[in-house]
Structures are given as structure tokens and as C-alpha cells.
Design brief:
Layout (H helix, E strand, L loop, with lengths): L2 E7 L3 E8 L5 E8 L8 E2 L2 H10 L10 E6 L5 E3 L9 E2 L7 H11 L2 H8 L8 H11 L1 H6 L2 E3 L1 H9 L7 E3 H4 L5 E2 L4 E2 L1 H8 L7 E3 L4 E4 L5 E3 L2 E2 H9 L5 E6 L3 E5 L12 E5 L5 E7 L3 H11 L4 H8 L10 E3 L16 E3 L8 H24 L7 E5 L6 H11 L2 E5 L4 H18 L15 E4 L5 H18 L9
Parallel strand pairs: 1-5, 5-14, 5-15, 9-12, 16-22, 22-23
Antiparallel strand pairs: 1-2, 2-3, 4-7, 6-8, 10-11, 13-14, 16-17, 17-19, 18-19, 20-21, 23-24
Helix pairs in contact: 2-4, 4-8, 9-14, 10-12, 11-12, 12-13, 12-15, 13-15
């Protein structure tokens, strides 16, 4: 029996799982918070190493033969010619580069040009936008930048003892804004457009490649971003979509090719297996539910869920467009939410509660339809996030999404995906595993929900929502078709 480890260095903590290479069974776990504010927009990367060391105490890694690394995405670690930090790392939650992103869009000739070049339109979070921000606001620091890494790249490099060769993987590279998932190649001209000069970029490894071996003989796999690692840990494949319910939302699917989308609604990532992960983001998901909790004065999401289930499909004609913070899908950055269909009989707490759940899920169904409209097959939906456990979400989602819904049990899926990648690289390096086929680990334990008899009612609710949306925001989705 072999043993591998996967670590997930998120914005707030490090999770480590130690797994059996053959089955994926978790043998040991480690956890440590990062010694920094989780809301910080920049940080000394040494904090990630300190957290990793704390999580791995007590002999956690004893007997481990390979390690996979997953980490927070869209971070930028700028290094000088000696490999030292030019300034603290800029994190994915840093939104200061919004103007820089707009400048870059214009600089290349518009959204269409970017979509064709790298499969995405610059957003504030992406490293390419951060490089432009750095060049504009900290020009002296920008001039010293000789190479750029992302968090998982930097951690892998540190674990290997800072070798001359620096690496990344296609999943993390696809989020930079200067690597194309379609062509599988960097666009150095876009780095120069953003930074003002060229910078060294890490070598992009294949899914089963090893980044190297530590002096102690530990194999380190390519690593990847958290999103790609979580998809790998869940075991999703072609025909699967993943809907994440946070304050904002995202819809991600597994697809056989990269998608170019000039509307900017689809961001075309690569995954950790050789496939692709087109993602559509919404600005509003659970924040709409929490706002309704405050509006109605109920105790929390659980009480809101129970209240919603006292209403009926369609919420007595109430429709909530949950665009509370503007919206990314459709592209309505300056709009506000809308509550329509108020009649005397609909002005009851249970109807507003249900309209909030229906509005949130219909907005995410819109995002699913953006992917379906581009030929992405969706046979089942994995529903993630604490809100996925709410009875109202589970009761409404299958009918509104029009497909089977899978609610996995909570687990460290990004760390599990990193461990699975480590097992794959270990087997490939020894010639005992197919470098094109990942190890067949047991899938996530999950609750499976079918649309059943509610499917017709779900279609009617979607039609009611779409009619209201198109009346208030006509043509909002025209660019997505």
C-alpha cells in the first residue's frame, strides 16, 4: 500500500489529508489557520509555509511518498532576479485592479480579442490585471519583477528547495489571463502589455507530471488551483456541473474543449485531468437569502427555509431578481435587485421567503443555461456550500435546474484532489499507472435528488422568472447566445 498527501492552502487555512494511493481512503488529517487576517488583500507568502508546517506536525506525513499542492487562485507572487519577493503577494480578493482590467481590455482591442487570445476577459482578480495595477501604482517595484508565480507554484517551488526550474499546471495557468487553455501556450505579449516588460513564467506541467523530488525523496506533483483540485476530489466528469453557493455563486462544468466567450460571462479554465472547466459566475447567491432573513426578521437561513416551504411554487406570483450587488451574469454591473408581482394576497412572509430561494436558484439556472447554450452537456449538478443543506434548496433545485442534483457530504475536496493528483504522478513516475488515466478513487459520499413530479412546476417557475427578467432587463442575455 502506498501513501500520499494532499494539501490545500486556501486564503484562511491549510488542510492536509493523507490517503491510501489505491482507494483514496483518508488515513490522517491536519489543519492549521493562516497567521494572517483572512480578509487581507496582500500577504507575505511565508505565512503559507508557517501554516503548512503547523498543519503537518505530529508525524502527519510519516510514510508519505508523494505530495500534491492545491492553493488559492488568482494570487500573484512577484519575484526579482534572485528569486526574492519584490513586494508582498497580491491575493485573489484584491479588487484594486478594476481600472487596470478595463485598461487591458481596451489595450488589446476589446473583449472579443481577449476571449480569442486566452479564453477570458480580464477581471480585477486575475494576475494579468494585478501586473498592470503594479506597473501603474508601484512602478519601481514593477521594474524589479523578473518572474511571476501563483500561490501553488510558489509553495511547490519552496517544497522542492527553490530549484532553478519553476513550474505550474494548466489549471492554475488558465486563470492568469496570459495563458490560453485553447492553445496550451503562454501569451508573453500580454505580460508585456500589462507589466511593461517581459517576465519569466513557470513551465506548465501535464496532469500526471511531477514537479520534482525533495532532497528527502518525496515526489511533488504538478499541483493546481483550488477550483481544479476540488473538482478532481469530487470526481466530476463529462456531463457534470458544479454549482457553488456562497455569498456569490458559480457554475462550473466539465467540457472537452476550451470555450471562447466575448461576452465575458464564461471564463475558460483548464482542469487537473486534461479536460476543461468553463465557469460562469454570479455576483449574488446566498447574500440574497441573508438579505431576506434581515428583511423578514427571522432567526436565520434555517427558519427562512422552513418559511419558504409553507408557500407554493411561484410564490403566489412574487418574483425576486436577486441582483443586489449588480450582476455578472447577465452583465449588469450597476443594476439593483427587483421584487415584482406584489398583490395583496402575495404580501406574506412565506411568499417572500420562497421568492428569495426561487430567485437565487433561477439566477444560477440562468448561468447553467449560458453553458448549455454553448454545447456543454449537463446531466447532473453537484451542489456545494452550507446552503446546499437547506431543505428549501434541496426541495427546489432539482426542478429548477431540470436535472439530477447531487449534494456531497462536506469534506476537504481540494485537499483530496491534490492527494489524488499526487497518487497519479507517483504511479506514472514508477510506470505502474497510465499517465493519461487518473486513479479510480471512490467518489464523494452524497445525497442524490431527482426532479420527479415537481419538474413541470419547476418549468413554470423558470418561465415566470425569465419573463420578469426579460421585461426588466430586455436583451441582457443576447450576447451569451
Amino acid at each position: 500500500m502506498g501513501i500520499v498527501a494532499g494539501l490545500d492552502s486556501s486564503s484562511a487555512f491549510t488542510h492536509i489529508v493523507v490517503c491510501d494511493t489505491d482507494t483514496g481512503a483518508v488515513l490522517r488529517r491536519g489543519y492549521a489557520a493562516h497567521p494572517v487576517d483572512a480578509k487581507a488583500t496582500e500577504v507575505d507568502p511565508q505565512a503559507w509555509l508557517l501554516s503548512l508546517g503547523e498543519a503537518a506536525t505530529g508525524g502527519l506525513l510519516e510514510g508519505v511518498q508523494a505530495i500534491g499542492v492545491a492553493a488559492q487562485q488568482h494570487g500573484l507572487v512577484p519575484l526579482d532576479h534572485q528569486g526574492n519577493l519584490v513586494r508582498p503577494a497580491l491575493l485573489g480578493n484584491d479588487r484594486r485592479a478594476q481600472v487596470a482590467a478595463a485598461d487591458l481590455i481596451d489595450g488589446l482591442g476589446g473583449r472579443q480579442a481577449w476571449a480569442e487570445a486566452v479564453g477570458s476577459v480580464p477581471q480585477a482578480a486575475q494576475p494579468v490585471s494585478k501586473l498592470r495595477w503594479l506597473a501603474r501604482t508601484e512602478p519601481e517595484a514593477a521594474q524589479r519583477v523578473a518572474s511571476v508565480l501563483q500561490p501553488h507554484d510558489w509553495l511547490v517551488w519552496q517544497l522542492l528547495g527553490r530549484p532553478a526550474r519553476r513550474t505550474t499546471d494548466r489549471g492554475a495557468a488558465s486563470g492568469t489571463g496570459y495563458w490560453s487553455a485553447g492553445s496550451g501556450a503562454y501569451r508573453p505579449d500580454l505580460v508585456e502589455l500589462a507589466l511593461g516588460h517581459q517576465a519569466a513564467l513557470p513551465e506548465v506541467l501535464g496532469p500526471s507530471d511531477a514537479a520534482g523530488t525533495t532532497p528527502e525523496g518525496l515526489l511533488i506533483s504538478a499541483g493546481t488551483g483550488e477550483t481544479m483540485a476540488a473538482a478532481f476530489g469530487l470526481g466530476v466528469g463529462a456531463g457534470d456541473a458544479v454549482v457553488s453557493l456562497g455569498a456569490s455563486g458559480s457554475v462550473m462544468a466539465v467540457h472537452h474543449e476550451a470555450l471562447s466567450d466575448p461576452s465575458g460571462m464564461i471564463t475558460s479554465f483548464a482542469d487537473a485531468t486534461g479536460m476543461h472547466l468553463p465557469v460562469v459566475y454570479t455576483s449574488n447567491a446566498v447574500r440574497a437569502l441573508r438579505g431576506t432573513v434581515e428583511m423578514l426578521g427571522v432567526e436565520g437561513l434555517e427558519e427562512l427555509s422552513a418559511l419558504a416551504l409553507k408557500s407554493t411554487p411561484g410564490a403566489s406570483g412574487l418574483v425576486l431578481l436577486p441582483y443586489l450587488e449588480g450582476e455578472r451574469t447577465p452583465h449588469l454591473p450597476h443594476t439593483a435587485g427587483t421584487l415584482c408581482g406584489l398583490r395583496r394576497e402575495s404580501m406574506k412572509p412565506e411568499h417572500l421567503a420562497r421568492a428569495a430561494f426561487e430567485g437565487m436558484l433561477c439566477s444560477l439556472a440562468d448561468a447553467l443555461d449560458v453553458l448549455r447554450g454553448r454545447g456543454v452537456e449537463v446531466r447532473r449538478v453537484f451542489l456545494l456550500g452550507a446552503a446546499a443543506e437547506l431543505p428549501a434548496v434541496q426541495g427546489l433545485a432539482p426542478a429548477l435546474f431540470g436535472t439530477q442534483v447531487v449534494v456531497p457530504q462536506p469534506a476537504e475536496y481540494a485537499a483530496l484532489g491534490a492527494a489524488r493528483q499526487a497518487a497519479w504522478a507517483l504511479g506514472a513516475s514508477r510506470g505502474t499507472a497510465d499517465p493519461l488515466t487518473p486513479p479510480a478513487w471512490q467518489g464523494a459520499a452524497a445525497q442524490v435528488l431527482e426532479p420527479g413530479e415537481e419538474l413541470a412546476a419547476g418549468r413554470a417557475v423558470r418561465q415566470q422568472y425569465v419573463a420578469t427578467r426579460d421585461q426588466i432587463h430586455p436583451g441582457a442575455f443576447d450576447s451569451a447566445s
